[in-house]
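Ticket #4471: structure export looks truncated?
Reporter: QA, pipeline team
Priority: medium

Steps to reproduce: submit the single chain below to the structure queue and open the exported record.
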Amino acid sequence: GFNYVKMDPDEWFVTFSGIPFGLTSDMLEAGGNPWLGIVYGATSRHSAGFNPAPMWKLWREWGIESSKMSGYWDEKPVVKTSHPEVKATAFVKPDGAFIAVGNFSWKKQNVALDIDWKALGLDPAKVEIYSPEIEEFQAAQKLTPSSRIPIDVKRGVVVIVKKR
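Actual output as written to the record:
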């Protein structure tokens, strides 16, 4: 088994690095932890304790299959956070980024995103930033490039950055 709450980001990364090195990137035990799993592009299987269908729908709408993944583990990630235990992964397309943020700490965090606008090829004055409503995952909220985002213990948030 895999403890989706107690494992640190390095253990998640090694475990979800792919079939040759670990588990497949779906979470089975009680639906896993969808807020931390999304940082690695992982969800649960349908009917495995958490309904991933709303996230799959958002992925389809975003076109995640045509995005380039830039994770916190990259040498020059597209997005970082203001707290070392809050990790971010961006799924980048020419007109924006789908950013998955996970709080791996045992305390609620209030983080800012440090976005490499040059790497994204976007002007922060010409983007829309928001967290979309995702059933059973998060409520919608409007954001700005300087917003601080509250994230509960072992939870996360999806942020969309789109060129206006």
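Status: closed, not a bug. The export was complete when the record was re-opened. Leaving a note from the reviewer for reference: The CA atoms of residues 35 and 137 lie 8 Å apart.
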